[in-house]
Predict the structure of Hydroxyacid dehydrogenase.
Amino acid sequence: VRKEGSREVKRLLDYYNLDMIISVGYRIKSHIATRFRIWATERLKEYIVKGFTLDDERLKNPDIPFDYFEELTRRIQDIRTSERRFYQKITDIYATSIDYDPTLNISINFFKTVQNKMHWAITGKTAAEIIYTRANANKPDMGLTNYRGVKVRKQDIIVAKNYLSEDELMALNNLVEQYLIFAQGQAMRRVPMYMKDWIKKLDAFLSINDREILENAGKISHEMAKQIADDEYEKFNKLRISDTQISLSDFDKAVKQIETKSKSKNH
């Protein structure tokens, strides 16, 4: 049943597999197929150059129930609040301070302070404490819940965000997104701010959101967390290599059994 104008009409509809449509579109020769290839090439080119391609009109006017806007916003939020993007944005905002000097320790440590206050607000731990308490060679993926690529690499283990649960990650992304909007609003209004003022603004922001405020540097240093993570990774990697060798050994045994059976049949 579907609506056609003001009427509800019941009729049989043909559905086609999307993979088949794409495959046929690239193979046949016709005016419609040519237009399809031009459109597809434009989308592919945009994806290669920009890293994304969007159907703006479809997102503005969703075809319910096929509405993926919420998924898109979650993915954009996760990208926007990634450690590198967050650092770049915070640095840009912080650089608007009247007394900003990139060579001062307060400037160098500002991002760490903001990051730690955010992590503390969500987990009750600083970034270093999260790594120190959650890196575990005996856990699947060493305790990491998300990472780049198909397997855990050494550069993944020193990012606190990689150890967060799904709920913690969503809460952190929401909080960071809100803070970025708030801080950008301050910068756009050209409100005169000193470096120390930004920390006060952050604490006020967290307080409004009923979050715990970190008042110190935490009990675990970055160096201690890194050492623990490195040690656990060495153990984890040895276990991973050992498991791979066992799997290969079992595979070799199975192959030999098949070969032996094959030879027996031939004789």
Remarks:
- Residues 11-77 form one domain.
- The first strand starts at residue 2 and ends at 4.
